[in-house]
Design goal:
It is built from 19 helices and 15 strands. By secondary structure, it is of the alpha+beta class. The chain has a single domain (13-484), classed as Cytochrome P450 (Cytochrome p450, Orthogonal Bundle). Strand 3 (56-58) and strand 4 form a beta hairpin. Helix 1 (19-28) packs across helix 2 and helix 6 (136-150) packs across helix 19 (427-444). The chain is globular and about 75 Å long. It starts with 12 loop residues before the first strand and ends with a strand. The relative contact order is 0.15. The structure holds protoporphyrin IX containing FE. Pfam families: p450. Keywords: Heme, Iron, Metal-binding, Signal. Heme binds at residue 424. GO terms for molecular function: heme binding; iron ion binding; monooxygenase activity; oxidoreductase activity, acting on paired donors, with incorporation or reduction of molecular oxygen.
Length: 487
């Protein structure tokens, strides 16, 4: 048995020890776990995860436990060949990989709602995102975030992970649902609490022992039902509306989709969109606060955008003027900000990407990735690789500029927006969201990065690499001290 063995099968090293412990570390300290084994020279290694379904059956006189156990093989990959394989192989499925190995993903299947398990495939996302690539969207989104930013007051201190994050939540809800929900702050608060509860239910026990009636499992069911009810209320509202709108929910209604699939779709998009966009937006601001020379470059570029595309003599409020900037200018005329976003994501997006082989066997190092096997690749293997990125821990947006172009040194050397078969369909929207917030904050405000004592921090926070879901910060907590300059 593999229980206590370490023979290698082909070039894939088999981890020694008790499988449950390897699996436990994989869920609780994923980054450290993968790194420990790669650092000890193993290029590919495998371990097993036991998933226990069912049931203890009580027989008269003899107490007997029966259980159905599924044993999953997980293969961890590193290096360039593996990376190419990981991102290019057709049989490797994204959704199935995350469902078991990540957990915490809201799914209507968990509460037995049929037809609600929407695959957010690229076509579906494209259909929705097309709606947003109308210039009208800048107006609506800038209105939304300006209103929320005004609540911060004329001057003060904000915690980016709370306050800036809230801006991303607002924009994502706006683009994934309808105006009525986007305007209901109470319901948005509830909505986010439900996501948080589902996220916190992703304990190893809950994922590995699906039958076990744990607190986490109960909380997950309760939050998923609440999420469903909340979103369905708005679908219902829009179905009964006298005049259809062009909001996403209305568009899906007009397309003939059922309540369940509309709720499933909105739920999935909010999940996929909020955390990555919200957290990375915070990291962009922290990086600019910590690197004043880049802050100046980006602020100047944004001021030039405003000067070139808006009427500077107009009496309109600043956010209204900003809405006149065409979408293609936001996308094409902010090269310095693009570099800053790119470099921020290289550093934050170092998590383990996951797949499950639903196709034919794939040869690897004299062995085979069988149908049903899981594979994982840590983006840190490429984003923190000193042979590709000089001094990889350093924030240096210049590394992507002409003459250096470090990200062109190897195939798929940059995968913060995904790569190969699964590029992020939300990328354009996410970048726009980040740029809207930065335009308001860098042109409309003065700000500086401070620590708990109000001084420029001596040490900057870094990303908690073991945090599976939140890209949260470790180290000294930092804040943004600001003064609002615009009306
Ligand atoms: C800064 C923001 C974002 C970052 C850094 C980001 C990053 C990524 C990455 C790395 C992947 C690929 C994961 C893998 O290969 O396993 C991905 C996939 C995906 N992203 Fe994003 N994302 C962001 C925002 C968004 C937004 C706003 C949406 C929705 C509106 C979204 C929807 C999706 C979906 C649906 C997929 C799966 C695509 C597929 O199955 O092929 N993302 N994203």
């Amino acid at each position: 048995s593999h229980l206590l063995s370490s023979q290698s099968k082909g070039g894939i090293h088999n981890l020694t020890g008790i499988p449950i412990l390897a699996a436990w570390d994989f869920y609780t300290k994923r980054y450290d776990f993968l790194r420990k084994h790669f650092d000890s020279g193993k290029k590919y290694f495998q371990f097993h995860i036991l998933q226990v379904f069912n049931m203890s059956v009580f027989f008269p006189r003899t107490t007997q436990l029966t259980a159905s156990i599924l044993e999953h093989r997980v293969i961890a990959l590193s290096g360039e060949d593996a990376r190419k394989l990981f991102f290019s192989e057709q049989g490797l499925d994204l959704d199935d990989g995350y469902r078991l190995l990540q957990g915490g993903i809201p799914s209507l299947g968990d509460i037995d709602v049929k037809d609600g398990e929407v695959k957010l495939d690229t076509d579906f996302m494209k259909r929705l995102l097309l709606l947003l690539h109308k210039d009208r969207i800048s107006n609506v989104l800038l209105d939304d975030i300006n209103r929320k930013m005004k609540y911060w007051g004329k001057e003060g201190t904000i915690d980016p992970f709370q306050d800036v994050y809230g801006l991303a939540v607002q924009m994502t809800v706006r683009m994934a649902t309808c105006e009525e929900l986007a305007k209901n702050q109470e319901d948005i608060k509830h909505l986010m609490q439900h996501y948080q509860d589902i996220d916190e239910s992703a304990t190893p026990v809950n994922v590995l022992l699906p039958w076990f009636p744990s607190q986490a499992r109960k909380a997950q069911g309760k939050a998923t039902r609440a999420l469903f009810t909340l979103l369905q209320k708005y679908v219902d509202l829009r179905r009964k509306a006298a005049v259809p709108s062009s909001d996403p929910i209305d568009t899906l209604i007009a397309h003939g989709d059922t309540d369940e699939s509309i709720v499933g779709a909105s739920m999935g998009i909010i999940f996929a969109g909020v955390i990555n966009t919200g957290r990375n937006m915070c990291w962009v601001l922290l990086n600019l606060g910590a690197n004043p020379e880049w802050k100046v470059k980006v602020a100047n570029e944004l001021k030039a955008l405003v000067a070139n595309h808006t009427n500077t003599l107009s009496q309109e409020p600043f956010h209204k003027r900003l809405a006149a900037v065409p979408l293609n200018a936001w996308e094409e005329e902010l090269p310095m900000l693009d570099l800053v976003i790119r470099e921020t994501l290289r550093i934050t997006m170092c998590f383990a990407v996951l797949r499950r082989n639903l196709g034919r066997g794939i040869p690897l190092a004299g062995s085979t990735i069988n149908r049903g096997d899981f594979v994982t690749y840590s983006l840190a293997d490429v984003h923190m690789n000193p042979n590709i990125y000089t001094n990889p821990g350093k924030f240096d947006p210049g590394r992507f500029m002409k003459g250096k172009e470090e990200d062109k040194k190897a195939p798929f050397a940059y995968a913060a927006w995904g790569a190969g078969r699964h590029p992020c369909p939300g990328m354009r929207f996410a970048k726009l969201e980040i740029k809207f917030v930065l335009a308001l904050f860098l042109v409309g405000y003065e700000f500086e990065l401070v620590d708990g004592n109000g001084k420029f921090p001596r040490e900057f926070p870094t990303v908690d690499r073991n945090d599976l879901h939140q890209l949260s910060a470790v180290g000294e907590t930092c804040y943004l001290k600001f003064k609002r300059l615009i009306e």
